[in-house]
Design goal:
The protein has about 260 residues and is α+β, with helices and mostly antiparallel strands. The protein is built from 2 helices and 20 strands.
Length: about 260
Amino acid sequence: MMRSLYTAATGMMAQQLNMDTIANNLANVNTYGFKKSRAEFQDLLYTTIRGATAQVPTGMQVGMGVRPSSLTPILTAGPLVQTDNPTDLAIAGAGYFRLLNPVNDAIPYYTRDGSFKLDAERYLVNADGLRLEDIDPLPEGAYDLVISPEGEISYKDADGATVNTGQIIQLYNFANPAGLAKYGRNLLVETEASGEAIGGDPGLEGRGTLAQRYLESANVQVVEEMVAMITAQRAYEVNTKAIQTTDEMMGQANNLKR
């Protein structure tokens, strides 16, 4: 009976992590470019009471519980929301924007959040001031910014003439995008698991295209998360019930002499 106490405890801890993951998904339902995660589990080692043989077709093995094995990001695209802001960009398909810190550009960051702004020097930056890589600032007096689906940047100058900058916003793919490390603030960092970033023009070699004046919403489905929350809660409850029942059985065994 002692074994069941520890087994049920592993189930409670696993469901707590599951609940933490669900809560984080729900908390980021309005976070642009956010990708939800799914908790995955594996059973633990087994105690073999009797092994299977040619004469005994089934053995006797008792499991020791469960453990978390992975928090897997679900990389399906979120719905696009129209904003009418000319510096907002959404990626329709695969790929990530690459951002650099203007003070220290040693570590590039990657994101699906395309809610860019113009800073004081008229660079395209995110909310934290990280600059979109290899894109020059817009000159003073430039207006009517246009970014094509292929990433080409143009604008109108003070005289009303259309100026094509010749610059293209690059997108980056990874062999295993699920292996990117979450840095917070809608940023991702390259790891050995993700592989090296492979950059190129939007719309080529499997990369998505850009949608100006749109943003990608989180791919979180509130109804699905609520159902998962109820399932996790019930699983947690039955594990606590297993501990309570084991405790009652142990109490009855201790009282046999009375």
